[in-house]
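[Meeting: bench + compute handoff]

Bench side (C.D.) handed over the final construct sequence. Compute side (W.E.) agreed to return the predicted structure before the next meeting so the bench team could plan truncations. Sequence as handed over:
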Amino acid sequence: MYRVFESLDALVTVVEEARGVPMTANCVVPRGDVLDLLDDLREAVPGELDDAQDVLDRRDEIVGEAEREAEETRTAASTEAEEMLAEARAEAERLVAEAREEAERTLADARHEADTMIADGRQEYEELTERARHDADRLAEAGRTTHDRYVADGQAEQARLVSGTEVVRAAHTEAARIVDSADGEADRLRRECDGYVDAKLAEFEDTLTKALRTVSRGRSELWKGGSPNGTPATALHGRTGTGMDLID
């Protein structure tokens, strides 16, 4: 086809460059060159026409082959896509199963740790409470003993000083002072006992608060991404998720 175009271009160039005939629109062209170009066209055109006719004759065959290849490509792509989808589903199910197992193990470990911490906290609470009770009883007993001793001393002093009006008045005053002093001492001992017990209970409350905060933080880290289907994670087996229900 390029040969045909080249011959036509050369023929046009010969005509354009031909010497014109004066007073007319005609020109004088070299006959040999023009005939040679026409021979080239005659030789080139049939071959190109035959090739074009072959293409036209095989059009349906070529289109059919292209359609068959396209159908085969679509079928192969569909089969490969189904295989890849099946593999992806299997991989996703495997990953979900592994994640579920890991979550169950983590939850079991967290529950075990929480139970251990709560058991330790209860034991420490019982020990602190028992120790505080003993200390309170000891301080109360010491206060009562001191109070009784002060009262006894006051009564003895009162009995000793009972010998006249001034002496009796002075004895009453001293006895009242001694009794007031004994009551004040008893109140002081009682306040110290209450303060000691309150301090021990505050220490235990702080221990329990730290333990519950650790459990809550562990559970929040476990479920912060939500459940596998994208919905918020709900409380398991009626638990609130705050850690307070683990004390019961």
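W.E. noted at the follow-up: The two ends are 96 Å apart (CA to CA). C.D. will use this when planning the next construct.
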